[in-house]
Amino acid sequence: MMADDVVPKAFRALVENAEKKYAGVRDLPAYGRWGTSNHYFHKVFKAYMRLRNYQQENRANLTDYGLQR
């Protein structure tokens, strides 16, 4: 593995993690007890914030690999 491949692979891992967590929240009912599902919403928000921060810190490298704004 080359050192150049680290940025796109880490980005792809963050995207897949965030999408997996979002899929779990998306399937929750829109009614009922919010106390139990609030925990899952927090996890999804945290995953997407991690992804956003990674994008901002590595924007130049990601655009070199073809990520478009």
UniProtKB/TrEMBL annotation:
GO MF: transcription corepressor activity
Domain of life: Eukaryota
InterPro entries: SCAI (IPR022709)
UniProt record, GO biological process: DNA-templated transcription
Organism: Nicotiana attenuata
One Pfam match: SCAI
Name this protein carries in UniProt: Uncharacterized protein
